[in-house]
Model the fold of this input.
Amino acid sequence: MVSSPPVRHAVVVEDDADIRGLLVLVLEQLDFVVTEAPDGLSGVEAVRNTNAELVTLDVNLPDIDGMEVCRRLREFSDAYILMLTARADEIDRLNGLDIGADDYINKPFSPKELQARIRALFRRARTPAAPAEDSRQTDELERAAVVQKSLLPRETVRLEGYDVAGAFRPTRSVGGDFYDWYQTRDGMHLTFADAMGKGMGAALIAATVRAVMRSVADTPAIDTAFASASATITSDLDQSGSFATMFHARLDASSGKLSYIDAGHGLALYIPAEGAAQRLVSAGPPVGILDGQHWPAAELLLEPGDTLVIVSDGVLDAHASLEDFIRNVEKAARSEETSDDVCAALLELAPVETAEDDVTAVVVRRKPDVQH
Done:
């Protein structure tokens, strides 16, 4: 008889209903049973009643502030406490006060980063041995892996003056990671996405995302195309109770202009030939979180020698901090001669023996001008 994994409880203490809903979705994807609390006092009681192992705690609450909630929790609970703040001055206070919190993250936050922080917290504790898998579960993972691999592009991008490569390394726990690209008359279109969840459900959602994004390829404006696609995708996500983070870009090869939309992904880096790497920030939440959401497009210019790197949260999870992640990704991009080699180096940042999630990378490099 196969034993069930232990149930983990989490409490979300947040007065903003939209943010609270997003936090609940993120935690449920990590297999927590989640209790919501709109203020500090009810949050303390929720932790007491559920014996929660994780608490996400907003600093600004309508009754008592998050720091006081943290102090009260530490009187009876050893739960991991992850504090959320929207103001820089509060970050200084959190750094300077020994209030018993385990970590903090500032708003607006990336769901990827939040999940990575939570995984890092729970790696500090001893975890029980994984239960044996039954044959039905194994069969589903195998079928999901086939679907997931089928989503990867079969064609190689051959753009004069560019070097484009992608790499994907699955784990045994199949998720919804995928990337897709195809050449156009002017350059290329690229989509990088992660449908939250595991197994066949996530793989099928990823397949839907890929198909829908390809269906809007002929829509001239990227923001119009993305709005149309996201509306279609959201209906499928609503039925599954899931959401998808996405990075979608269109490259005009002759000019180097890259138009892009980041919907909750937050793991794309622009690495210029000269100067520091820049993390491309999200334009809004993941697709499927809010009805009627609009994601504005942004642009950057890929000059000769510049590189765009997009990775999955499997790479972020392997790092202790966002700063370490950015530094090591930039180092990998600058140390290798080809995009294929950069992808290989990026996968090595998340060693296969310790990686808890799929590891995916895409690199778009504009080749330096040849000096005669």
In short: The first helix runs from residue 17 to 29. The chain has two domains: 8-123, 139-366. The radius of gyration is 21 Å.
